[in-house]
Amino acid sequence: MSKRILVTGVSGFIAKHVALQLLQKGYDVCGTLRALNKADQIKKSLSDAGGDISRLSFAAADLTKDDGWEEAARGCVGVMHVASPFPVAQPSNRNALIPAARGGVLRVLKAADKSARIVITSSMVAMMYRPNRPETFTVEEADWTDTSWKSLSAYIVSKTEAEKAAWQTAVDGGYKHRITTVNPGLVFGPALDDDIGASLDVIRLLMTGAYPAVPPVSYPVVDVRDVAQIHVNALENPETSGRRLIAASETLSLSDIAEILRQAFPDRAGKIPSRVLPAWLVRLLAVVDRNIATVLADLGSVPQADSDYVRALTGVNFRPARDAVIDAARSLERIKSI
């Protein structure tokens, strides 16, 4: 029987780790790319990390276009839809990213074989935002972000609407039992190459002196290797069908992350911020800086992840958040991104 798995957006930080663990377990992997000129670099990165690239192939497919998806998914017994649009700068229109995110997931669902298992990378941001929430609160599997809240960024809105569209399409089509979503928190851990993604860019900016101070925000943190393990288990384990798997355990503030980096990299401590901006100043700066405005919904909140059920379902033993932060930074040093 074929063990071919489609991994969308295989050049991404999480997707490469998913592909690596699939290859290490003997699966054949077809990774989608918008353009195939990244294929050789991905082969090298996965080979250097211990993946059997003789089992790796590529297909050209763009989330915003219909072409290529049916061919890419043909013969695949599983689909890992990891790709999602993330802008370099946040658009002023909070709905701007919805068409690409929702359209992408619907194209993948349409292309998937009628018997294929489908694992979709969503995010905890699709779960944890609602007005008037308490300062400290627990994020649970049934929670959904209220996208009517005006403080939300375009990325948060797009991830929420894309996941909702996936579940509704699966319910309407009668195949909810074949779908699992993985909802990670802030993903750290080692980069396999210099395509580091948005989450590791936070570490890079903290370590290079780009931030003179940090806002008072906190996020559930997870190691990318644990996220990849949960994806693979969701593919193999029928008990995860129809479930939303929260991938995170500990919560860290940006100030906590900066302190971890200062202790682990004392030679860089002078560049790593030690001050926390007051919330009122963040709100003021957000008026003139759209990227700062993306954290407004997080000011002063401390979300906790309810992920005990994910441990029980998948067997994942979440790595300490501190180790995920340090391993991310060490990998950035190795690839000379800092």
TrEMBL record:
Entries under Gene3D superfamilies matching the protein: NAD(P)-binding Rossmann-like Domain
The UniProt record lists the keyword Kinase: no
Top-level division of the source organism's lineage: Bacteria
Pfam family membership, one: Epimerase
Location of the NAD-dependent epimerase/dehydratase domain: 5-241
Keywords in alphabetical order: Oxidoreductase
GO molecular function, one term: oxidoreductase activity, acting on the CH-OH group of donors, NAD or NADP as acceptor
InterPro entries (UniProt xref): Epimerase_deHydtase, NAD(P)-bd_dom_sf, NAD(P)_dehydrat-like
Similarity remark: Belongs to the NAD(P)-dependent epimerase/dehydratase family. Dihydroflavonol-4-reductase subfamily.
Protein name, as recorded: NAD-dependent epimerase/dehydratase family protein
Organism expressing this protein natively: Hyphococcus flavus
